[in-house]
Design goal:
Helix content: under 10%
Number of strands: 10
Strand order of the largest sheet: 2-1-5-6
Number of helices: 0
Number of domains: 1
Shape: elongated
Largest sheet: 4 strands, antiparallel
Strand content: over 45%
Radius of gyration: 19 Å
Length: 104
Amino acid sequence: MYALVEIKGKQYKAEKGTLLRVDKIDAEEGSALEFDSVLMISGEGDVKVGAPYVDGASVKAKVEEHTKGKKIRIFRYKRRKNYARRMGHRQKYTMVRVEDILGV
């Protein structure tokens, strides 16, 4: 059984026990979360598709940890103009473990 859930504008496939890497959520490690924006639920042969969300469905999850992604190097350059800039960026993520899918 799995569900497609929307978290902070992005869609994730959530199965019970899986670990999802989502954009940073302001919650403490070990706290419980509940996502109500479930787009689809599939289980034991039947599929429920929402318009846009499935009524009464939710995904319960637990915050495991907060991490940072790999550093991305950004280099801007304009030839013959003496212009070169180096920058970097590390995206912040939250690791979320799916505990249960409700509304099947």
